[in-house]
Amino acid sequence: MAHEEIDKVTGVATTGHEWDGIKELNNPLPRWWLWVFYATIVFAVGYVFVYPAVPLVSGYTTGLLGHSQRASALADAEAGKAARAEIGQGLAEASLDQIKADPKMLEFAMAQGKAAFGDNCAPCHGSGATGSRGYPNLQDDDWLWGGTLDDIHTTITVGIRSTSEDTRVNDMPRFGDDGLLDAKQIRDVAGFVLSLSGGSVQGADVAAGKEIFAENCTSCHGDDAKGSHELGAPNLTDHIWLYGGDEASVINTITHAHRGVMPTWGGKLDPVTIKSLAVYVHDLGGGT
Amino acid sequence: MRVDENVTAGGDSYYAAARKNYPAAVSGRLRTIKWSVLIITLGIYYFLPFIRWDRGPDAPGQAVLIDMAGRKAYFFGIEIWPQEVYYLTGLLVLASIALFLMNAVAGRIWCGYLCPQTVWTDLYFAVERWIEGDRRDRILMDRAPMSAGKLARKAVKHLIWLLIAVGTGGAWVLYFGDAPTIIKDTFTGNAAPIVYIWIGLLTFTTYSLAGFMREQVCLYMCPWPRIQAALTDEWALNVTYRTDRGEPRMSVRTGQRAKAAGAAVGDCIDCKACVQVCPTGVDIREGLQLGCIQCGLCIDACDTVMKKVGREPGLIGYDTDMNIARRAEGKPPIYRIVRPRTVLYAALIVIIGAVMAYALANRAFQGVSVLHDRNPLYVGLSDGGVRNGYTVRLINKRQEARHFALTVSGLPAGFAIEAQGVPSAAGKPVVDVPADTTREVRVLVMVPGGAALPASTPIEFYIVDTDNGEKASASDFFRAPPPN
User: What is the pLDDT of residues B163-201, one digit of tens each?
Assistant: First the structure.
């Protein structure tokens, strides 16, 4: 740059660059600014050698430190597992009531139970555990096989009509399909059953239905029709109906019977997870 | 001074080395104020963490503390929780308006007296003068070839600078934990890595910014000179060379000759004392400029010289360009501190300050927040009733454990409320919340069958301290199946 021209207005030298009569002034930047720029270049070069940086045809340069986000994420996961193993050991040895009474174990069990529920139970029972037709709502206060911690733990372990040898099982007869009751009798007994919770069935003789109920249903559902947790027989006097509480649904249930299946989780999930699930599910309904 | 004059032009280069300043020692009224401000501000910074404040056995006993792990900030009798961060916002708003007010009254007095960059740089200059001597000695020493004596002086200077820098970082970390414990742990090597990282970081910034960057920070890095230029007006007092009195400048002897010849003579004797004492190296006689931090040291320097040559002091002073023009026209100068701009700023400070003080004095020491379950929104019960689940967080800001009775209003009679794992008294869960913390409980609200409920009922949760009746409430909804 041999060019030397001083701008008349500012008294500052120009760079000699000119566009359409507009000249660029040379107001020099402090040199430390330039050094900062060089420092960033040095940093960038160092970074390329130390950290993964350059993509190759297959793979990439790994850098001197061998850093990998995937590896560090896996290490974090391993560390988490190790931390969980310790408290998990405590859970394995503790009884369900002890877990419920210990705030630290309870917090762990609830967290693990929630995650395990989402993975294993939500497909049928729903992510909010409210179930759907044929799949029990686990949030309410009505339990087919009992709602205590131990009852829930057993149900999860052995399942219902599952492949487990110890499975919970019962047989609701197919009163219509197997010719045990005729259509009129079914209508009458449905009328009686619905009358227990304030409903009615058109054209049903409730008194006749009561007698049919006493002969055919009380062995499982009980004299008071309140069902039995031991037998998994539903309470027919409340407002909760697994397969629908309207006239048609109840008649359909008596005629064909439903035999829902829940898998056994005993061999599939580890004992600690099952305990956590029991605690979590128990807590959903308020722990009654 | 234009920015480019601060650098020695490197010929045709687009870059130039920064010119090193050798500000001379000066004494006077403004220098005394500056020393006092330096001692007070640094005194506060270094010693505030050591002040103790008794808050009871379970709370930290440090007057000013930012407890990151506990997520609380303490300032003497005031304790701020994260959700009350708006007090900090209010404080920052107040600080900005105070800065605007300062600027409207007397320009960049923040820059000249209070800015940490100014205060620490001033301290570093003082050390430099103490070890290496005044301006002349320092210039000569820097020009001289390296010798044992020069090396020793430089080494001692940098050592003291580094000690100050370490102290700066060392004091910073004391605000984030118990000061005596941190000091002990730091020296015995037991402190957390983050303590050493912060000390190192602030050692580096203090040493480099106050020792080497100095006025470059103000010229190239700080946004405030640019912002304040947009905020100022013609009434704001600025360090001003009174050209009406000073020009034409000439030496005392030339002045005598000129006077004898009947020519105009200014009071400025062109001794350059004002330039030599300037910490940013500007020539104030060129007028108001970006590089001037308005510390007023040139005023002290000029007054000293004026006294020596038997002229009136005040050739440089806090004044306005408008007054220079007025005096040149023979009119008296006008000073107007009280004007709409300053009144507005002052009023804003008073209003915001009053609102904050009121809010702080009347803030509740308990609180409740409620989160309705999302899935499911409601649960049908066997008796035909409906149940809703909520996550309720109770907040206790007092330094003692408290018991809160939890109730809900807005629901038909017969409803029940229970909190999981919490005992109830007279149908109301009574939640124990330990001192100075929050507690989350899961709450179930049941409405029995037969009650005709709309799909959504607005309800209100209340917590009432069972001992003194202090209350807090939060709104939410009770959901039910849509009526057919």
Answer: 999 999 999 999 999 999 999 999 998 989 999 999 999
Domains and CATH numbers, chain B: 3-231 (no CATH), 238-328 (no CATH), 366-479 (2.60.40.10)
Q: Kindly provide the ipTM of the predicted complex, given to two decimals.
A: 0.76
**Which DSSP category does B82 fall into?**
G
Domain segments of chain A as ranges: 1-73, 83-161+263-284, 183-256
Q: Does A56 touch chain B (CB under 8 A)?
A: no
Mean pLDDT, residues B202-207: 96
Tell me how close the Cα of B190 comes to any Cα of chain A, in angstroms.
24
pTM reported for the whole predicted model: 0.76
B72-75 and B78-80 beta bridge pairing: antiparallel
Other C-beta atoms closer than 10 Å to the C-beta of B250 total 19
DSSP B380: E
User: Topology of A183-256 in CATH?
Assistant: Cytochrome Bc1 Complex; Chain D, domain 2 (1.10.760)
Question: Residue B412 CB: number of other CB atoms within 10 A?
Answer: 13
Interchain CB distance below 8 Å, A26 and B381: no
Does A139 sit within 8 Å of B17, measured CB to CB? no
User: CB of A111 within 8 A of CB of A124?
Assistant: no
Q: Nearest by CB to A141, which of B6, B15, B382? A: B382
What one-letter code names the amino acid at A193?
V
Which of B282, B315, B357 lies closest to B77 in space, CA to CA? B357
The residues pairing with B425 across neighbouring beta strands, listed in sequence order, are B428
| Mean pLDDT within A162-182 | 93
Residues B338 and B323: their CA atoms lie apart, in Å, by 16
Which chain A residues are Cβ-neighbours of B220 within 8 angstroms? Answer: 30, 33
Query: Model confidence over B232-277: pLDDT tens digits?
Result: 888 999 999 999 888 889 888 888 888 888 888 889 999 999 999 9
Find out whether B237 and B335 touch, Cβ atoms under 8 Å. yes
| Beta carbon pairs, A and B, within 8 Å | 87
The pLDDT value given to residue A1: 45
pLDDT tens by residue, A195-217: 998 888 898 899 999 999 999 99
> Which residue is associated with the tokens 């040493």?
B207
Whether B381 and A30 lie within 8 Å, measured CB to CB: no
**Average pLDDT of span B474-479:** 96
In the numeric block, the tokens 């017969």 are attached to B414
The number of residues in chain B equals 484
Query: How many Å from the N-terminal Cα to the C-terminal Cα in chain B?
Result: 82
Question: CB of A28 within 8 Å of any CB in chain B?
Answer: yes
Closest CA to A132 of A232, A254, A238, A260: A260
- Class level of CATH domain A83-161+263-284: mainly alpha
Report the pLDDT value the prediction gives residue B262, as an integer from 0 to 100.
84
Q: What is the mean pLDDT of residues B208-218?
A: 92
Does residue B484 or residue B186 have the better pLDDT?
A: B186
> Rounded distance, CA A287 to CA B273, Å?
86
The interface residues of chain B toward chain A in range 443-462, judged by CB-CB distance below 8 A, are 444, 449
What does pLDDT average to over chain A? 90
3-state helix, strand, coil in chain B (%, to 5): 45, 20, 35
Residues of B in contact with A138 (CB under 8 A): none
Residue of B nearest to A3 (CA): B12
Average pLDDT, integer, range B135-158: 93
**Cα–Cα distance for residue pair B284/B241, rounded to 1 Å:** 6
Q: Please state, in angstroms and rounded to a whole number, the distance separating the CA atoms of residues B462 and B471.
A: 7
Residue type (1 letter), A24:
E
Whether B4 sits inside 8 A of A3 (CB atoms) is: no
Q: Is A5 on the interface with B (CB under 8 A)?
A: no
